[in-house]
Design a protein that fits this description.
This protein is mostly helical. It is built from eleven helices and two strands, in the order αααααββαααααα. Strand 1 (about 155) and strand 2 form a beta hairpin. Keywords: Membrane, Transmembrane, Transmembrane helix.
Length: about 325
């Protein structure tokens, strides 16, 4: 790549604004979702804890973008803190990897729930969930520990992009871990989602064919929930996959500074922001507590009372309509 130090100031301002806005917005989406997931009693289970871990990983990744990448997009990084740049870069990879592994385990969680329901409570009990979360933490910590001279990932002010070093170790991590390994992870997730969706759809058709009116209404409700879960997983994984494709493939075909910024730094932040937005959109239990600041604060302070009130309200409204 050629240096781009002569970039017009207005372009640097635009890039800083784009990155800062998507990072802050995405951080808020994921951080607020994390708080709701750990406070809402509906999510006090294996799926809820794993979803909270994914939201937290997204939030931490975007916090790094907001506090580190955004200001250094406009200002040059002082040479005295270049060493910190290396650690922050590896930390961003660690938090992103944590997010990907959470997505994988959530997919496996749903697979077991649908394909092996009798074994679900044994396979994904509270103790196993804690072990899985610890494994995710250990893998992320190992990724972070790869920071040393000759094995680098950092934010480059000249190109306004996160980049791997030119050393053999850095390039190996870029190819074999960040590209190939993560691609395999998302292929597995996509395959699981398709199998689960086909199985649920087939089972639902059989049940609806032999059910009465009340059962049909319940089946339609369950179908809507299953469709939301499938679309949530599909869209999130598509966002992460496109981010990897953009970072490692599309960025190679542009020499323009703005294009490089968009295909690497911005699309990475946008993918994690999309993860939080998708989580909110497809989970009414989360979206329902983000209607206003007072409601959210009340829920965080006393979630049981807020949930009970919402439940009573929901029960009354339909009866009035009919």
């Amino acid at each position: 790549m050629n240096s781009t130090k002569n970039v017009p100031d207005y372009l640097e301002i635009l890039e800083t604004a784009l990155l800062g806005s998507v990072s802050i917005f995405g951080f808020l989406c994921n951080a607020l979702s994390f708080v709701i997931l750990i406070r809402h009693r509906v999510f006090r289970n294996s799926f809820g804890y794993l979803a909270a871990c994914e939201a937290l990983s997204n939030a931490l990744t975007l916090l790094i973008f907001a506090l580190w990448a955004t200001p250094w997009t406009f200002m040059e990084i002082p040479s005295t803190i270049q060493w910190l740049n290396l650690y922050v870069g590896q930390l961003s990879l660690a938090t992103a990897t944590s997010c990907f592994h959470c997505s994988l385990i959530i997919a496996i969680n749903r697979f077991v729930a649908v394909m092996l329901p009798a074994l679900y409570r044994q396979v994904f009990n509270e103790r196993v969930t804690v072990v899985l979360l610890l494994i995710i933490l250990i893998i992320s910590t190992l990724y972070f520990s790869l920071t040393f001279t000759g094995c680098e990932f950092y934010f480059d002010h000249d190109f306004h992009a996160w980049t791997f070093g030119e050393q053999p170790c850095s390039q190996s991590i870029s190819l074999y871990i960040d590209t190939c390994y993560n691609l395999i992870v998302f292929v597995i997730i996509g395959s699981i989602d398709i199998v689960v969706f086909v199985r649920v759809r087939s089972a639902r058709k059989k049940i609806m064919a032999s059910s009465g009116g009340n059962a049909e209404a319940e089946n339609r409700k369950r179908a809507g929930r299953e469709n939301r879960m499938f679309m949530q997983s599909l869209l999130s994984n598509c966002a992460y996959l496109f981010m990897l494709f953009s970072f490692h493939v599309l960025a190679r075909f542009t020499s323009a500074e703005f294009g490089l910024f968009m295909f690497t730094t911005w699309v990475w932040a946008a993918a994690h922001a999309a993860g939080g937005l998708i989580l909110i959109y497809f989970n009414p239990e989360v979206k329902g507590h983000l209607v206003s600041v007072p409601h959210f604060v009340k829920f965080v302070w006393n979630p049981v009372t807020t949930i009970d009130t919402a439940t009573r309200t929901t029960a009354v409204v339909p009866s009035n309509k009919y």
